[in-house]
Write a structure and sequence with these properties.
Helix content of chain A: 25-40%
Largest sheet of chain A: 4 strands, antiparallel
Distance between the termini of chain A: 50 Å
Radius of gyration of chain A: 21 Å
Shape of chain A: globular
Strand content of chain A: 5-15%
Strand order of the largest sheet of chain A: 3-4-5-8
Oligomer: homodimer
Order of helices and strands of chain A: HHEHEHEEEHHEEHEH
Number of strands of chain A: 8
């Protein structure tokens, strides 16, 4: 972790007066071969340990000792990442470029626990995003725009001064950086094909302020379990006991999914009660189906061909 | 087609006394945007047309006028390929290297008709292979070895004199080129993940002299239809009439497959009667399962992980 900051310092020192783009991917808080690699020592990093009672248990996980221990390990890994980001920002300060550099911090998937990572449920989609711009006047403010990682590239292009439409799916975030409730940012789309090459489970999704609609294109298959999640104490505990529930969700519901899922996120933030097929939601369903299909058409989704057989 | 031979001549002229490897892939007899592109003219090639009554109807296709017309078009495309290969061999003769060049002719998939291409049934697996070696003493002989395209690379390495094991799945064919019934060539394996990226349907297979065993790893899904096959007059005719049969096979059987298929190829060359699960074949099934799994382990098949959930 500290070595990454040192490498970044060396990078800044070599190209002091040229525009640069530095992409840093930490392994924390990814799962390691064993747990979260907390048993290793990390020079320059203070280990921050958590007790099983200190963790916040998400509603999609069972309250079991091994789950709490797994979460505590995860927290420790995040604290290491947190310190690493701090070292990176210090290195940027020392380089003299903090005043002309846009910093974007994000995660590429949800927490590495069943019910989150690889899913299009909110714990798999609602990821950290922090942007620090030197032009910013309200540091620390929270922006309620629904944004997506397809907006990252247009944001960077905008920051570097590249002009003109490039037929990109996303939009630059720079114009709304300092707005708490920007208008016209009320829907996001998501797409998943497979987490590992053997784990085919194509899904398409639209999420609005109030609803989520998921289209499971290969719903006949069991929902696959990423290998790191499969090996986790959390999942192994569920298997060993033969649990029927995983937090508030049944295991059956998690593994066998219908072709379409529709959730009312205001009444049902845990995404437990599928409303697709209920007469009362037919207008919402039709609207979200149409918007999702429109996005697939706009982005030339190859999986649209699937519909030919339906 | 003729242009390919001219390009090959130019290639031979440029490197007259160096070892060379020339890989030529013809578009014939692939399906084109419309039919088999027989309406185009091909300089240097004589069109050979076939009547609908001249074609041999395979048992897996329905005897319908549009199927016979489609097959006749396919034959014409093959006759063009045939002439193209002739021109290539003439170019090789003119180069003076016919006497020190190994010529391998093969097809990369079965005929572009439903029931053949993309399947692991014999019409999708039993592909043309002709090898001409200058050392050959019995030209035109038929070799009954069961071989696979994994044997092509070791054959070429052997021909070029490269020595030593490379941990390859196949074996050189050179030592058995002139044997009609070489010993120890009585099984082949096959693997399929997807024909197009949207067409996930992983299968694994072993074929012996007498039996075939197929493992359909995502059998819950409908068997996908390659786009060129979907658009073919043959498939469109089946859809338009709402046929229940496709030749000797039911459409239901073709589209919805079980997890395991076992066929007695001597009694049932059309692979219509699945014997997996029949008590009388349990020994054969267990044996083929074991051999197929052994091959997956030998080749580090990533899909072996699937078995963890079974």
């Amino acid at each position: 972790v500290a070595a990454v900051a040192r490498a970044a310092s060396a990078f800044f020192a070599e190209a002091p007066n040229k525009p640069f783009a530095l992409v840093v991917g930490y392994t924390d808080p990814h799962r390691a071969a064993k747990g979260f690699a907390n048993e290793r020592t990390y020079p320059g990093i203070k280990p921050v340990r958590f007790g099983p009672d200190e963790v916040t248990l998400p509603s999609f996980l069972p309250d079991r000792p091994e789950v709490r221990a797994d979460l505590a390990d995860y927290y420790q890994s995040i604290s290491r990442l947190d310190q690493g980001i701090g070292l990176m920002l210090e290195a940027l300060d020392r380089s003299g470029h903090a005043g002309d550099t846009l910093v974007i911090f994000l995660s590429d998937n949800g927490m590495p626990f069943p019910g989150a990572k690889t899913t299009l449920y909110d714990p798999g989609l609602n990821l950290p995003l922090m942007i620090r711009s030197p032009a910013q006047k309200k540091p620390g403010m929270v922006n309620r725009a629904l944004v997506s990682w397809v907006d990252v590239l247009p944001t960077i292009l905008d920051w570097t001064g590249v002009k003109g439409s490039r037929n990109l799916a996303g939009r630059s975030l720079l114009p709304i950086l300092e707005e708490e409730n920007p208008k016209g940012w009320d829907e996001v789309f998501a797409s998943h094909v497979c987490h590992e090459v053997t784990m085919y489970y194509p899904m398409r999704m639209i999420r609005t302020r109030t609803h989520k609609y998921i289209r499971n294109l290969a719903h006949q298959l069991d929902y696959p379990c990423a290998q790191d999640l499969y090996d986790s104490p959390t999942w192994q505990g569920i298997l060993k006991r033969g649990d029927r529930m995983m937090g508030n969700r049944t295991l059956e519901q998690y593994v066998h999914r219908p072709a379409e899922e529709l959730y009312d996120l205001e009444k049902d933030p845990g995404e437990l009660h599928n409303l697709a097929g209920e007469a009362s939601t037919s207008t919402t369903l039709a609207d979200l189906r149409k918007r999702l299909k429109g996005w697939q058409e706009k982005t030339n989704d190859p999986w649209l061909v699937k519909y030919r057989h339906e």
